Amino acid sequence: MSGSDTKALAHTANGATAAHGLPGTFNGLFAVGFLARASYGLARTPVLALFAASLGAGPEAVGFAVAISTVTGIFFKMPAGVLSDVIGRARTLFMGLAVFAFVPFAYLFVSSYEALVAVRFLHGFATAIYGPVVMAVVVSVAGDKRGEMLSWFSSVTIMGTLVGAPLGGFLLSWLSGGQEPTLRDFHIIYGVVAVMGMASFLIALWVMHGRWDSPTHDDGQTFRAVWTKFRTGVREILMDKRVLLTSNMEGVQNLSVGALEAFLPIYTVMVCGFSAFQAGLLWGVQMAVTVLTKPLMGRISDRHGRQSLLFWGIFVCAVPFALIPWFTSFSSLLLLAALFGLGEAVVTSSAAALVADFCREDHLGSAMGTFGTIFDVGHASGPLLAGFLIGVVGSGTDYRIPFAVVAALLVVAAIIFRTGVKVDTHK
Questions:
Q1: pTM to 2 decimal places
Q2: Residue 375 maps to which CATH number?
Q3: pLDDT in tens, 177-232
Q4: Continuous segment of H or E residues that includes residue 18
Q5: Do residues 215 and 88 lie in contact, with contact meaning Cβ atoms separated by under 8 Å?
Q6: Are 101 and 200 within 8 A, CB to CB?
Q7: Which partner from 237, 259, 315, 398 sits 20 to 30 angstroms from 339, CA to CA?
Q8: Is 426 part of a structural domain of the chain?
Q9: 327 assigned to some structural domain
Q10: Boundaries of domain holding 115
Q11: 248/410 Cα distance (integer angstroms)
């Protein structure tokens, strides 16, 4: 990022109008991100898994449907970062928001599992384009408060997801009247998804009016030059063991999030016999705890170091995750979901900030792209791995051994991180 870009972003962080770059205030960015994430959250949990199951999908196929949108991010987050260097961050962010706005209308034509998978893949371009660019911007302007600022921004977007999940469960329960949901019920919900995504898009049009950044190339930054610099940065980042092991911690934690996202609704509704609204409420409680505790955890990581928090946070995720399929009472599941949300707050408030601590400023985009790719690999692998284990080991209904295997992977990753990243370079 050039010096002029950095100055523009700094003005943005203070709520002033930036001559180039992002919307004039963080408040505008937060509002747009909130609505976009609410739309995406409504489309995903618990509605997506139940939609796939209603179309005849088994556990493995449900896991694939949930994971496929994240696979998009695996392949396209790094190119999105390069594109933002060439055409500007504001334009790149707006491209992602356009996907949030227009792709959800395709759900209204879905009547088969194959069509659902195809639309989910396309919908994944929304976060693939939007996600890594936003992270790099926040880290750039946060200074020595990057852990806290990343946590605040993440909490705002999580609040969108927090609204989306229970709303999806409520709408599905209300539309179906407690009966088996019909195709029409799912189409109505995805119509709401489209309206919310379009609202985010229109607000972005208003906020970003007249503030399109026009990157200058007076330093010879042609696309080829930018691409060469990008490859060099990625090469150096991929050779940094600390960055990879730290990113892997977030990735493996996100593996458990993806598994829970796909199969907690199925377990809650089909095994425990609760309603779709209660399934969405469980996910909402987990997200609420994450939102409420994440800024505090980010502040603690800024002041006291990140590595110990990251290490122990994995265990706070692993233990309740392994225990969930051993309980069928709603109160117990609420408590375990809340504990998992606390662990997620601890891990995610430290991981991205620690990666930023380890890398140079001019490699920040490459580092965030690498981080985002590993993040998405974990998120995509969770539903696939859990679905495979439930189908093969659990015979489709027993979740205890599959969830224990995923929890064990978290513990192994934590031990490897502790061994490989020994020196806390932060403060």
A1: 0.66
A2: 1.20.1250.20
A3: 878 899 999 999 999 999 999 998 888 787 666 555 555 544 555 667 666 766 66
A4: none
A5: yes
A6: yes
A7: 398
A8: no
A9: yes
A10: 3-212+230-420
A11: 10
